[in-house]
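Hi, here's the filled form for the chain we discussed.

Project: internal
Contact: R.S.
Residues: 363
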Amino acid sequence: MNFQSFNISLRPPGIGLLGGLILAIVPAFAQEPAPVTVAQPEVRPAIERVELTGSFTARRAAQLSPRLSGLVETIDIDAGDAVAAGDVVVRLDDRLAELQLAQAEAAVAQARASFDEAVRLRDEALRLSEDRFLPDTEIQARKSAVQVARAALDVASAERDTTAERLERHAIVAPFDGVIARRLTEAGEWVETGTAVAELVAVGDLWLDVQAPQRLWPRLRQETEVSVVMDALGGRTFNAQVAARVPVSNPDARTFLLRLVLPDADADITPGMSARALLRLTSDADALLIPRDALIRYPDGTITVFVVDDSDSPPRVRQREVTIGRVDGDRAVVESGLEADQAVVVRGNEVLNDGDAVRVVTD
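And the returned structure, exactly as it came back:
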């Protein structure tokens, strides 16, 4: 058998014509411009979003201690108790101080009586001096007696006030509204001056302390927009304000302390809770921003965009490698590789190749 003639006989008739039609049709479809959506780059100051983690601390916390030594008589507070400014937290045994105050008050009464008598004798001498019944030396002596009695009364009054203050210091009072964090003594204990008997924390007046990287120091302002996310409260968000930047950096971590306050803080926020602070930092210089949808990322880290070249008809796209800085929401900051007047493809760029014809459509 002739294999060559057999193969020729099996070839379907008309294959040459059909193949030509297919080759003619495929390029026609390949040249159809792809529909794309484009966006113009923006030139404006970029906003950098920085997330920091911190903890709430009480703005006011105090170790309460007596101003004099004594025996603890009563202590009616415990950890968790709320107290108001002026409430007695601990009272020392003040029996001796009460007796000393009574003695001082009696001394004041005695000095006042002596002063009143000296005044009476002086006034009597002044009346008699008009008729020359008393010599001038006696009149001057009675005037001096009034001054001595006045001084004695002042001394006695000062002694009484000192004793009264000493008696008052037997009561240890809360200097501000807060909650007792720790109870550090018991009734019957002897405490010395400066010995802590309780720890008081103002839970309604809190700081949020975060450690910020040193590069943010020149960009943080009082008007910086800050929001705080509380994961412990189900992700609730609160507005915050920059209260202070502490210019003492941590040389090991290269950070500084940033203190925030929450004007609308919730009562459920307590000292020690953690929170995430989201800062919006505006740059001083203008930046070139494009939609993040325009970016095409490759596994090797390369980032490209497609720009529309209107010099051809139909327009064609050119792929450009770009360098991206920080991200501003749904915008990315382009540091190099793109000009401000070059429109970028934001939709339809997934299937494009460099040089493809495109048809620009609107959303």
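Let me know if anything looks off before we file it.
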